[in-house]
Amino acid sequence: MRHIISILLENEPGALSRVVGLFSQRNYNIESLTVAPTDDHTLSRLTITTIGDDRKIEQITKHLNKLVDVVKLVDLTEGAHIERELMLIKVKATGAQRDEVKRTADIFRGQVVDVTSTIYSIQLVGTSAKLDAFLAAISGVTILEVARTGVSGISRGEKVLSV
Amino acid sequence: MLIRALHDEGVEMIYGYPGGAVLHIYDAIFNQDKVEHILVRHEQAATHAADGYARATGRPGVVLVTSGPGATNAVTGIATAFMDSIPMIVISGQVESSLIGSDGFQETDMVGISRPVVKHSFMVQNPEDIPMVVKKAFYIATTGRPGPVVIDIPKDVTDPKRKFPYSYPESVKLRSYSVPAKGHTGQIKKAVEILLAAKRPVLYTGGGVVQGEGSALLTELAKTLGYPVTNTLMGLGAYPGTDKHFLGMLGMHGTYEANMAMHFSDVVLGIGVRFDDRVTNAVSKFCPGAKILHVDIDPASISKTVPADVPIVGSVTSVLEEMLELIKSSETKVDRKALDLWWKQIEGWREKDCLKVTPAENDVIKPQQVIQCLYDITGGDAYVSSDVGQHQMFAAQYYKFDKPRRWINSGGLGTMGFGFPAAMGVQFAFPGAVSVCVTGEGSFQMNLQELATCLQYQLPIKIVCLNNQALGMVKQWQDMQYGGRYSHSTYSESLPDFVKLVEAYGHVGIKIEKFSDLKTKMEEAFALKDRLVFIDVMVDPMEHVYPMSIKGGAMKDMILSKTERT
Description:
The complex is a heterodimer.
Chain A: E1 2-10, H1 15-25, E2 32-37, E3 43-51, H2 54-66, E4 70-75, E5 81-92, H3 96-107, E6 111-115, E7 119-126, H4 128-137, E8 143-148, E9 152-155
Antiparallel strand pairs in A: 1-3, 1-4, 2-3, 5-7, 5-8, 5-9, 6-7
Chain B: H1 2-8, E1 13-16, H2 23-30, E2 36-39, H3 43-57, E3 61-65, H4 69-83, E4 88-94, H5 110-114, E5 120-123, H6 130-142, E6 148-154, H7 185-196, E7 201-205, H8 207-211, H9 215-225, E8 229-231, E9 246-249, H10 256-263, E10 267-271, H11 277-280, E11 291-296, E12 310-313, H12 316-329, H13 336-350, H14 367-378, E13 383-386, H15 390-398, E14 407-409, H16 419-429, E15 435-440, H17 441-444, H18 451-456, E16 462-467, H19 472-481, H20 498-504, E17 508-512, H21 515-527, E18 533-538, E19 548-549, E20 558-559
Parallel strand pairs in B: 1-2, 1-3, 3-4, 4-6, 5-6, 7-8, 7-10, 8-9, 10-11, 11-12, 13-14, 13-15, 15-16, 16-18, 17-18
Antiparallel strand pairs in B: 19-20
């Protein structure tokens, strides 16, 4: 099962390496990782997507909680949540494919953010599955570059991850 | 400022080795007499000595090393302490802040290199932060599940020219670090109900009981209930080894009765243990009929390898106190009839006498006999530090520890070279006590340079070397699993003359080759109360450690001797 774990982390040097190191040290898998400071400059928010059965995820959250720099964490996938990822993708856009790419981007509510006579750079936001679906939809097109941010997420409703 | 902070934290003694990046600190040490510095001969030994001190006293051991090689040499000792949850503070020098990242002379990323084997680490950025960092480091190292904490200090941060008003913080609060205090009362109630209803119970207890100062309460619990107790390698002494309720050590080289009782139990109460692979054998076959109750201060230890039916997170003392109260006030009483039957079965297993020693012929000494002799001579009351290998298992099996903190060994990491410097730490902590190091000729050669430290500080350690002229445990496995092909486990032609070696360092060496000499010569050695004596005991090189669990089996599956298995 895929899980999205959000962590509030002390914004201190070395804190991130402790989190990442824990995953490699204990043979856990990181599918994606995003990190940035929050409105409180002493805290960073990290979002990790990982895969494992319930027992493994329980161990991961327990070990993360043991890290002194981890202030709080939540497994977003335990409840209703919103997950978003941003992708920038640069594709060859010439001839008939130029219109096809634009149309597909529109269907996926993507935006063309940069244009040359032969290239489109498209920005797309959504769940990871949606971004994967877009990549599948334009599989006939020459993809030059893909940059994905990794998943960020937040719980739905009243539930809040804060200090 | 650093030394003052250490003093204010209550530190009496630090173990270290100087070098460029810590010269300011060493100068500060020179100018005071409140904190005693012990000069070792290798940084690894400093960490093991601090570790031995911590295990014997319960107080954190403190280490001071320089940057680069000083720091990396300390890593093995840090990892050793980490695996056994020993409180330790390691202060490492670092190159000047402006040089960090430039591959400066003796620069290494100590915070990075030690990361997987510390509870936490700090890099001090400013001199004024030193008191708070020290306070936090000790707080983290000693509370909850203890462990080593590294403080890395760039040289410029300890520059005496940079002066700041000093005040040592009274207390510390970390928003991201909390210590579980009491266990969940509902869970404890549930555990007590199951425990009282048990027909074939076992108390399986470990290093957490020693570290958490829970021995007295554990003893009370076991006596109140009349239940059998088995200790892990790390837990020896947590329950009196000579008590009739004690089944001996369990696990890979545990006793027949302890392992059989575990396997056939219906309730296992694990206290301060981690269901390590050296205990459980194949997890899928572990205690098939038992409900597992697990008490530990570290939530991550619970259900890590064996799922717990009733997990209880809390300190050993608070949970045991609450359990005892509940048991005393409970209307349910222990099922004496079932318990009698259970004890009868256990006594049957005991009759096998799995640790019986058959004397060798031709006056050859069996290694087990050396430990038995040591036990008799020291009245079972010595601090015994051990290295790693066959001698460690023999010591664990044959020395009956009645008190906690007497058995000092590297259980988790299995660090050869640990025992001798650890025995130094014990002797420093208790100058009047009998500090024994049980070692082998392999392990001892990994840290023998400390003979010089022992001379400098006049440490009267007794080193009992079970000399089988081989890496005995490796050889045993090669005998059992690799057709007796002794790949790089023997070196009898190149062993030093240990008696001459220790004499060169100014100590006394005694060699014992015949069983008929064992007792008198051992007594002779222990009579030299103010000298370090190295007792080189030539033992039967073909001896194996038994019982030994059969790989991939259940706890009941054991090899009992070269010819007998369960």
